[in-house]
Every structure is written in C-alpha cells, then in structure tokens.
User: Which sequence fits this backbone?
C-alpha cells in the first residue's frame, strides 16, 4: 500500500478537546474554560529503558511478564502534591478491542480522534510482530508501531523502587498529568484489576477529575468502556507492574503526534488478520510438537520438525500458489485457510478424528470447504498437497466449476515441475490405470465425462474419471491450450456449465470431430510413459 505522509505538527493538536473542567461541566459535557497549557516536559522520542513488564494482554489472557503473585495495594496519594485541576481530552471515539489487541485498539482510538481513518489492525500491522505468534502487541512492539506511525512516545519504561514507590509514582503521575494538560493522552500498561493474578492490560488515559480525584480512561476491553473512571489511588496501585521484589516497572506511551504517516485501513488480509486467525487456531492445535507458518493465503500447521514445515510452506505451497496464480487465478480464497501437514498415517488419522471429528476417506489428504482446511498425510509426498491447493483457488475464481475440471486440473499438478517459470504437469501414477481402461474400451466419451454430475464423477471407484480428466488437461497443456480453455470455460460458464462446448471450440472440433479427437487422444495417452 502506498502511504502518503501527513504532517501534523504539535501545534495542530486538537485543543478544542482539551478543557479544564470541573466535575459538573464534565457530567454535562460543557466547556468552562480552556486550561493554561504548561510546557510539555522534554522527553526523548526514544523508547528508552529496559523492556521489563512488557506484556500488555487482553482482558482474558493471564499475565506473562509480571510477578502476578504480588497483589496490588492502594497507594496513598501524596498530600503535598500541588492541587491539580480537572482536564479531559474529549471526543475520543471508543473501540472494542479484538482478542489481545488492547494496545492496538487504544492507539486506533486516538488516531481516529486525530482524523485518521484507521483501525486496530493497522496499528498491529505497523508493529512488525510476526503474526505466526498468534498474539497482540506487547509493550515493545506497540512502542515500535507508535513510533513508526509518528508518535513521540517518550520514555516508556520507568523503574520504581518496590519499598518506597509512592514518591516516584507521584512524580511519574505529575509528568503524566502535565501531558494531559498539554493535550497529550497516554496508553498505559497496567493490571486489569486487583484480583490475585490480574492480567496486564493497555488502557488509554484521557483525563483527570480533580473534584473526585479520578483518572478518566477508555478501556478497549469493555463494551461501554468510554470515559470510565478510577480513583487516582487505585490507578497508582494498578499501574506499576510488580515484576521484581526490589523494583517495579511502570509503563506509559505518550501519544504526542509528530509527523504522522497518513494511514488507512488496508484491503485484503493483513498481518493482523493472520494473528487473529492464529489465535483461534491455537485452540485446535493438539500439542507443542506442532509449528505454525504463515504462507498467504494459508496458515500451515505441521508436526514434523519446524524446519520441515517451513520448507513445505516455502518450497511446495508458496511455489505452487505463485505459479497457479500466474497461470489461472486472480483472486485469493475469501477466507484464510489452514493447511494441516500430519507427519504420518498415524498422526493423520488420529488428528483428523480429534480435530475435524471424522475419519479421512483418503490415505493422502483432502480439502474440506466446511473446515476451511487442507488436511494432508505429508508422508505420502507433496503431490496431493499441490492438487488440493487448486481447489480453494478454483472455488474463489470459478465458482460452480464442475468436478471433472476441478479434479482434472488438481490431479495434473500432483506431479509437476517449473518450466520457464510456469507450473507444468508431468505424467504420473494415474497413467497406467487409464491406459488399461483405454485398452479395455472402458473410457467414456468426453461429452459423457463433461456432463456427468459431480456425484457420479466422484462415485467412480476405479479412478478412471480422475485419470481421464487429468490426461485431457495434460493434453491441452502440451498443446498450449490449457490456460486458454480455463479462461474461456470460466468466462462462459453460464452458457456452458459442463465445459463441453468450450472444449469443442478450443479444440476446433464439431460433434463428429470429437469422435475423431477421442481416438487421437487415446492413442496419444497410450504412447505416454511414466517412470515412477
Ligand atoms: Zn481433488
């Protein structure tokens, strides 16, 4: 995606939303008087400090980085602190986070307030986080995303001594408050609540009510999470992540716009979509022996060693997808699909039953539209995998394609190679059976093959239908007619749903000529050789 840059100087911060307000005017939503804006404390744009307590999780995930055994206790507010006025950044829309995208949602809310038509996925996509991890941003990645987007986030990690935390926390709050007065909100990573093992959670802090001594924030984890309130004392108790016995981590990311890039919501699936998909997928993955590789438009899951799974993803799946798209398919499947590579027969049969609740009907592998999955016994080789990859692409690009052509093209690439950058089908194990059927005069006419129903096509127990369709595609390929046939057939499918008329046209034969063609094709197939 091409990105334009929008210069948004600090002076252009929407100060209309920044008001010094009393309790009543806050309730009534009225402006009273503009706050004097003190200078923003000078802070470097670096996310300095050591990344500790870097986990910001969704509301359901357990804490991973903090020593969660230490329950937060309320911190008494410093009585000597100067009296603070109320301040509120108004008109910030609230977004409900996707799973584990609390930080991303917080950032998107304020980007929306700044007029950027972006979503939480956009923020994730700017983080550089590998979607195969199947999680949202931790603090480190969120900081990277915010800086790429163009925020001056200031120092992110602050250490607070565990024993005398109050004074340091008060100082950090004073800086925080000064930013709010200057119209700069912040995302904090904090404990969700004060239960014994609280999750760490990102929230967007937007104001402070002096009258009630409350921090005002958006919570992306709640449906009605806009402008929620929490006593400052409670906030200061939940803010430090009690990562160590001696020292705690306090995390704040300022959202001061520098030169903001001009973001817009992306089309198609992005890294964020894959991350969300992997999060759902992880619930189905049977065990730690499985690794996950993103290979658009697929997510590959396998229980061979991780390096082997990656090699299949790159050398078989990507290889085939690139070439099939170049030759035939413009559109990707409408959904992200899973490719399960089970390492052997035992794993394949056991996991099919466990994950998909049915026993496989083929020893090699299959594509299931309802499970949105290609399911493979990869010990039988990568040929079936390439075959099955054809099906979801066919469904996306040629809906209603009859089984004979769908399976013929899929079968053609069970044995294939690269020829001048193009995918090229080779003779394979299906040849012998077809030759035998030709000799026994058991092969139906092409008219019969094309016009058979899908049910009858699949009911053929000997596999002659697959083989006949495959070697028709092979013949068309060798004559340089296969891509032409595909395009004409797909384009003309309303008038000629079986493809038979299109086949005649591409071959340049009439009805009588098709009889001659059948004899020529059978003789051609009998001359083919497969050295398996
Ligand atoms: Zn198939």
Assistant:
């Amino acid at each position: 995606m091409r990105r334009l840059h929008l210069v948004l100087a600090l002076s252009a911060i929407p100060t209309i939303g920044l008001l010094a307000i009393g309790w009543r005017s806050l309730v009534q939503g009225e402006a009273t008087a503009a706050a004097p804006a003190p200078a923003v404390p000078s802070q470097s744009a670096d996310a300095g400090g050591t990344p500790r307590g870097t986990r910001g999780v969704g509301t359901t995930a357990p804490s991973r980085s903090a020593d969660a055994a230490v329950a937060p206790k309320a911190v008494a507010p410093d009585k000597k602190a100067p009296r603070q006025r109320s301040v509120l950044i108004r008109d910030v829309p609230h977004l409900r986070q996707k799973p584990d995208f609390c930080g991303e949602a917080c950032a998107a809310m304020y980007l929306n307030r700044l007029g950027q038509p972006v979503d939480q996925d956009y923020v994730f996509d700017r983080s550089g986080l590998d979607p195969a991890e199947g999680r949202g941003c931790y603090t480190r990645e969120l900081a990277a995303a915010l800086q790429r987007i163009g925020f001056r986030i200031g120092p992110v990690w602050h250490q607070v001594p565990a024993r005398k935390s109050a004074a340091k926390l008060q100082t950090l709050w004073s800086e925080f408050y000064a930013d709010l007065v200057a119209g700069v909100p912040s995302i904090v990573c904090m404990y969700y609540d004060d239960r014994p093992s609280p999750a760490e959670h990102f929230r967007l802090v937007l104001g402070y009510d002096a009258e009630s001594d409350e921090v005002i924030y958006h919570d992306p984890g709640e449906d009605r999470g806009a402008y929620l309130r929490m006593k400052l004392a409670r906030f200061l108790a939940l803010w430090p992540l009690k990562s160590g016995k001696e020292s705690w981590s306090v995390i704040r990311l300022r959202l001061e716009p520098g030169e903001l890039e001009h973001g817009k919501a992306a089309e198609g699936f992005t890294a964020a979509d894959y991350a969300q998909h992997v999060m759902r997928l992880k619930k189905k993955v049977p065990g730690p022996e499985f690794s996950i590789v993103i290979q658009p438009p697929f997510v590959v899951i396998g229980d061979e060693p991780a390096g082997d799974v990656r090699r299949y993803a790159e050398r078989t799946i990507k290889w085939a997808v690139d070439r099939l798209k170049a030759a035939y398919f413009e559109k990707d499947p409408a959904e992200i699909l899973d490719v399960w590579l089970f390492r052997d027969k035992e794993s394949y049969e056991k996991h099919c039953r466990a994950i998909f609740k049915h026993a496989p009907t083929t020893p090699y592998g299959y594509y299931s539209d309802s499970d949105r999955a290609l399911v493979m016994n990869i010990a039988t080789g990568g040929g079936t995998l390439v075959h099955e990859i054809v099906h979801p692409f066919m469904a996306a690009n040629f809906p209603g394609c009859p089984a004979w052509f769908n399976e013929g093209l899929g079968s053609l690439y069970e044995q294939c190679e690269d020829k001048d950058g193009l995918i090229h089908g080779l003779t394979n194990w299906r040849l012998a059976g077809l030759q035998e059927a030709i000799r026994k005069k058991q092969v139906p006419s092409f008219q019969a093959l094309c016009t058979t129903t899908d049910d009858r096509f699949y009911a053929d127990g000997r596999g002659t239908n697959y083989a006949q369709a495959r070697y028709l595609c092979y013949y068309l390929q060798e004559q340089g007619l296969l891509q032409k046939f595909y395009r004409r057939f797909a384009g003309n499918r309303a008038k000629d749903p079986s493809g038979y008329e299109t086949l005649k046209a591409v071959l340049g034969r009439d009805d009588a000529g098709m009889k001659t063609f059948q004899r020529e094709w059978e003789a051609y197939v009998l001359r083919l050789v497969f050295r398996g």
Remarks:
- The chain is about 40% helix and 15% strand.
